[in-house]
Amino acid sequence: MQQLPKDFLWGGALAAHQFEGGWNAGGKGPSVVDVMTAGAHGVPRKITAEIEENEFYPNHEAIDFYHRFKEDIVMFSEMGLKCLRTSIGWSRIFPKGDEEEPNEEGLQFYDDVFDELIKHGIEPVITLSHFEMPLHLAREYGGFRSRKVVDHFVRFAEVVFNRYKDKVTYWMTFNEINNKMDVHNPLFLWTNSGVTVEEGENAKEIMYQTGHHELIASALAVTKGREINPEFEIGAMVSHVPIYPYSSNPEDVMLAEEYMRQRYFFPDVQVRGYYPRYALKEFEREGYDIPILDGDEEILLNGKVDYLGFSYYMSTTVKSDVQADNKGDIVNGGLPHGVTNPYIQASDWGWSIDPTGLRYTLNRFYDRYQIPLFIVENGFGAVDTIEDDGSIHDDARIAYLQSHIEALGKAVNEDGVELIGYTPWGIIDIVSFTTGEMKKRYGMIYVDRDNEGNGSMERKKKDSFHWYKDVIASGRVLD
Ligand code: BGP
């Protein structure tokens, strides 16, 4: 039986906007996610200009952690979580984003949450921006189109680094900074950067221009954090969906490698501290105008991260003689050459189930960067059924998580990968990001709330709650 190190950070992952609710409580301002309506499987979410009376916004109340955090943290403690990954709602601290002084009520809320977590032996692992830019920065400044928003982000980072420097060690700058590479899904550029592409603009160029400002913001925040507390461990956080060649046809193999550059670009810059040559070649070839200022190269080099956090859900496959219109289709990573992999199954939402892909990813990242890794999202979105006796037998979720834990165990124990921890996504049922649904449940704790916002909000333990509690207690990764 294989074990993981005793100090392995077994945890769970969440994001402020997907579970806190209290969208305008305690002085919080609207964020870019607060104007996103609910969608459904195959039905995109709408981004409204402002908050409209007759629309339903699932993130406004979410699962009301804002008012229930003490009870929820007791349940997290019962599971034996060693850490909890979540984000600080940027617009709870700076309601508009460009104020001089932070909102004390917002700061106090996170003091209370972190104190409660630490009281129960759970270490907070904090994402600075998890798609939660203040709406005012998006509307008035154009989000990360503006270099000024870099300063506003660094100010936000400085305030929370100082406020929580004795409560939080592990930080991440931007959640899934790279998912906007799928430029055909407006959701990603909007939530990552507060940006919408205008008529006649080149979406890829806009993505790289705003991405440069985020990379500078990330590097400046890392440097600032190190000044405030040299003990901080500050990571990058990327979405990783490995891309396989459909066959041993060298055209398929090279195509997969070219697509993988989309996955590697952002972490290459955040981990190595400079732009990779393949990107500079692309900028030159496409004539992209990237707003690199004098001194930016030094900023990037000085602001390299301590570890690489990433989300892993699925893998994708490409075939060189296929031109599919997968634009905006998250399942194929929006890849024009994306095809179904005949060797693996998929979830009800079409996300492939590939635990070996997680071991493959851990090895590729570790070989490329030689720094500690942290799996900060991994999970199985599914419909759950409540039996007559109130039990919830989420066997498919347990099978998914067990197989992925076995894969990470092999990466650590057989391949020698340095892995800080594992925080399965949605440790409690929360609002889905891509669809805004509650129906797409990830949690080991069920929440009585449906897609339309009906329900008691009552929490129920699923079978996976007890299963995961046993995994953490035993540290057992392979049966
Ligand atoms: C990632 C986000 C998370 C989470 C996850 C699951 O992209 O970092 O916020 O939402 O996707 O996706 P979904 O909620 O759409 O099922």
UniProtKB/TrEMBL annotation:
The keyword NADP does not apply. NCBIfam families: PRK09589.1 (NF007154), PRK15014.1 (NF011589). This is 6-phospho-beta-glucosidase. Gene3D superfamilies: Glycosidases. Signal peptide: none annotated. PANTHER family: ARYL-PHOSPHO-BETA-D-GLUCOSIDASE BGLA, GLYCOSYL HYDROLASE. Its EC number is 3.2.1.86. It comes from Paenalkalicoccus suaedae.
